[in-house]
Amino acid sequence: MPLWFRRHRNYDEDNSWACGNWFEFLLVVSLAIVLLVGSLVLVLFWVMQYREGFAWTENPAKEFNLHPVLMVAGFITFSGFSMLLYRIGRCCRRIYVKLFHTIFHALAVPCVVVGFIAVLDYHNLSQPPIRNFYSLHSWMGFVTMGLFALQFVVGFFSFLILLCCENATAGCRASLVPIHATFGILTFMLAVATCLTGLTEKAVFSLGNYYSYMMDEAIVINALAMTLVGSAIVMGYFLLREGFRYSGHILVSVQSEM
């Protein structure tokens, strides 16, 4: 009595959407895209306009500038688009949606790694050297990177299993989906919170008392922070909204051998 697993896509739900449902869906997706891209644009503008751009180990202060840019790119923009694509690909084959979901997560990995190296170099090469891993921001960063690494490994492993033996692992993969999705949302929210503590720390250390005078740089930093907050709100709404969830499910049919 073999078990045959097949994935069934429920198109009736999409067809039953009213005009208001589609308007809500497109509005939230558009806002999410603007905020995810806007976060990266603002952090690039801040670094190029007020922090004198980038360098490598020959100029530790400029090397540090890689840290906020790459962390926002990896944890916010690429990871955000990875989750966004997983939900908006309603009319595409799931194998392609999962492929692009994995690609965007993979793009985030080198951003996070190089961004982490940049801040370590800045601390170690500064004169005098700056202590590592003492602040709330760094502790939160460790937890965020740990969750992100775990998410990537589990997601990549399940995706490979999907390609190799889809039917045999259908039940196991189905049970992993809600866990993977929940931790993905938690990781994104924690990444936003970590970015906010980092921006506050940098603003206080770099601007000192001038921060309270709302200089141009302070306004840009605050605008970047609010864009990140907006990303967390919109992405949280989009990912947790029951009506936007992928409604495909696995059906199990039993055929008797006569």
Automatic annotation (TrEMBL):
<keyword id="KW-0249">Electron transport</keyword>
<feature type="domain" description="Cytochrome b561">
    <location>
        <begin position="31"/>
        <end position="240"/>
    </location>
</feature>
<keyword id="KW-0813">Transport</keyword>
<feature type="transmembrane region" description="Helical">
    <location>
        <begin position="99"/>
        <end position="119"/>
    </location>
</feature>
<protein>
    <recommendedName>
        <fullName>Cytochrome b561 domain-containing protein</fullName>
    </recommendedName>
</protein>
<keyword id="KW-0812">Transmembrane</keyword>
<dbReference type="InterPro" id="IPR043205">
    <property type="entry name" value="CYB561/CYBRD1-like"/>
</dbReference>
<dbReference type="GO" id="GO:0016491">
    <property type="term" value="F:oxidoreductase activity"/>
</dbReference>
<feature type="transmembrane region" description="Helical">
    <location>
        <begin position="219"/>
        <end position="240"/>
    </location>
</feature>
<feature type="transmembrane region" description="Helical">
    <location>
        <begin position="139"/>
        <end position="164"/>
    </location>
</feature>
<feature type="transmembrane region" description="Helical">
    <location>
        <begin position="21"/>
        <end position="48"/>
    </location>
</feature>
<keyword id="KW-1133">Transmembrane helix</keyword>
<keyword id="KW-0479">Metal-binding</keyword>
<dbReference type="InterPro" id="IPR006593">
    <property type="entry name" value="Cyt_b561/ferric_Rdtase_TM"/>
</dbReference>
<feature type="transmembrane region" description="Helical">
    <location>
        <begin position="68"/>
        <end position="87"/>
    </location>
</feature>
<dbReference type="Pfam" id="PF03188">
    <property type="entry name" value="Cytochrom_B561"/>
</dbReference>
<feature type="transmembrane region" description="Helical">
    <location>
        <begin position="176"/>
        <end position="199"/>
    </location>
</feature>
<dbReference type="GO" id="GO:0046872">
    <property type="term" value="F:metal ion binding"/>
</dbReference>
<keyword id="KW-0408">Iron</keyword>
<dbReference type="GO" id="GO:0016020">
    <property type="term" value="C:membrane"/>
</dbReference>
<keyword id="KW-0349">Heme</keyword>
<keyword id="KW-0472">Membrane</keyword>
